[in-house]
Structure formats: C-alpha cells, structure tokens
Amino acid sequence: MYLPKHFAEPGVDVMHNLMRAHPLSTLITMTAEGIEANHIPLLLSAQPGPFGTLHGHVARANPLWRDHQKDSEVLAVFSGPNAYISPNWYATKKEHGKVVPTWNYAVTHAYGTLRVIDDAVWLRAHLTALTAHHEANLPQPWAVEDAPYDYTEKMITAVVGIEITITRLIGKWKVSQNQPANNRETVIQVLNTSGDAQAACMAALIRTAAEKG
Fold it and tell me: How far apart are CA 131 and CA 128, in angstroms?
C-alpha cells in the first residue's frame, strides 16, 4: 500500500478500534490458482500482543480453508469511514483556485498466518462471542442459546473456524492532513451538515488528526 508519512497511523489501539468498528474484512489469501479474496467478519482479540489475533469462520463449502497456501502470509483489509471531498469545500478555492477533488478514507491492513480450526467446541464458543459482540447494542440482543441446541449443532457442522495471528499492522488515515487548517475546517463543516452518518464519521477523523498535529 502506498503510504506517505503524513497519512500513516502508527497507533495499534487506533487501528484496533477501526477493526472492531468495521469488522467485515476483505481476506486475501494465496492459493495454487492465484490470489483469492473473501469478505468475512472477523472478531479481534488484543492478545497476544502487540498486534492480537483475528477469529472467524467460513462455510465448509468455501474452499478458502482447504486451498490457502499454508506457508504464505494472508492479508485482512478493514475499511473504515470514507468520503468524496469536493474542491468547492476548500476555503482556498476562493483565494487561488488551485484545488482538486480527492477521496478521504481510513483503512487497516492486518497481515498474519492463518490456522484452520475444525472443532465444534471452539466454533460454538467463537459464534457465541461473535454474536454477543454484534448484538450487544440492540434493544433485545439475540444469543446462540436462543435457538434450539440441536439446530445450532447442525449449523456448526456447516462451518469451519479460522484464526489469524497478526504479525504486522499498517494503518492509513487519509483525512486531509495535507491541507491547511482553514481547508480542514470548511471540509469538516460541510461533512457535518450533509446529514450522512459516514460523512460525520469522516469529519470526526479529520478533527482528531488535526488535533494530533
């Protein structure tokens, strides 16, 4: 990934927060047939340090768990808020007009080694934790135990667990750091008044980056 220094996000905690908030990863693996990409929600554990571990599952029918090259690194890409930035939003447009469009975004790339776990006990614990994580903020959280045990046991046989021990993390926060303060402020104003939730999240990222200097 092309990563100019001013867009680099070195904070492991910051990258972890994005991964938890946007858990649907693009998991890229190497197979004998070439590069494969699957879209899989992954649950992050901060242990072992410093980068943590990712847990997930795939359908047994998905060839990922059989075909990935065991000696190759895998890459899970987590995409956070993103927004188109119009040059009309820059304060300096009125001064000199030397502005162009761009796209702001925040992403984390998690590299590591993938281990397949075909174990019903592990899978039930994983699915229980995964469900609890995503149901936590709902008015009436659903739990695995809400479904009949024999039904969930049957469903568990249809999936295979995966575990990725993260060996390196790369974060890219392209959030207007290359713009002067007055341009950042006008962009934040427009994004916050757009009525779009993702735009508001991007405005918050621009604000945070500006405050960090």
Answer: 5
